[in-house]
Amino acid sequence: MFKGKDIVSIGDLSKSDMERIFEVAEEMIPIAKGERKSDLLKGYILANLFFEPSTRTRMSFEAAMYRLGGKVLGFSNPSSTSLSKGETLADTVRMMDAYSDVIVIRHPLEGAARLAAEFAENPVINAGDGAGQHPTQTLLDIFTILQEFAHVEGLKVTLVGDLRYGRTVHSLAIALSNLGAEIHLVSPRTLKMPGHILREMKTSPEVHENIEEVIEISDVFYVTRIQRERFPDPTEYMKVAGSYKISLELTKRMKDTAIIMHPLPRVDEISFEVDKTKHARYFKQAFYGVPIRMALLSLVLGVM
Ligand code: NCD
Hints:
The protein is α/β, with parallel strands linked by helices. The protein has two domains: 10-133 and 288-300, 3-Layer(aba) Sandwich (Rossmann fold); 135-286, Rossmann fold, CATH 3.40.50. The protein has helices at residues 15-32, 56-67, 89-99, 112-119, 135-149, 167-178, 195-200, 234-240, 248-251, 282-287, 289-300, and strands at residues 45-50, 71-75, 102-107, 124-129, 156-160, 182-186, 206-208, 220-223, 259-261. It has a five-stranded parallel beta sheet with strand order 7-6-5-8-9, covered by helices on one side. A four-stranded parallel beta sheet has the order 2-1-3-4, with helices on both faces. Strand 5, helix 6 (167-178) and strand 6 (182-186) form a beta-alpha-beta unit. The longest helix has 18 residues, at 15-32. The structure holds N-carbamoyl-L-aspartate.
């Protein structure tokens, strides 16, 4: 069922696909922590094609592969490849496909991962395509929520920040609506959730301009960075930079059990003092990227 599957947008995964991924990820946790050894992916090669900066996504895919005994090749600086000689993305993908068993791609253009999937025989996993989607981040986000609350249905989840250009919140909003969460959106007026994402959602979210409106009721705050690199005009960025921030003061008004998540990197959306509060989950969330990607790789390679 999973073998050979491309994972380009969150819509490529059904609810039962997600449940299967979470089940396998759970088993992977001790291996991800290095407590148990595994050779499950011995002999398999992952090609990491990173056309945009990345720390967590690229490294956690690498860690996932190494923890399971597999190997990784690829690039994180496309200027060192033949792309700089004018090779097309399609040709680069065809070559990397021939050198590996599975491709992970991050690219500044929306739709690049879908194009790669069309040219590659092997499974292609989207690690972020411009302001499009970031499905593997969504899987680890939902996994984090499940680790904390054991369910998603009925939870009040507030997505905060750059909902327009942030690809993590695009995939996440769709998945959360499918799983029955009550979704609240908080963003500057110019950075609202795009209409095409709202139309893909099963339920209508509640839209707010100020986090104050939901501070006492939310179970999960999912905070995002303003995606500066996607602003066509830098003066537009300056207008919204720093327009919301989770301060220590604000956390005092949250539910006792509320958690704060962030896909990271953070710039100034969450003050550093919040890190040591009982609400902070963003570093734990980043760790879950490893077992989730281990599960995903094992499933698309057909060994689980
Ligand atoms: C995100 C991304 O690249 O979309 N980072 C990540 O993968 N954890 C979020 C961001 O860059 O703001």
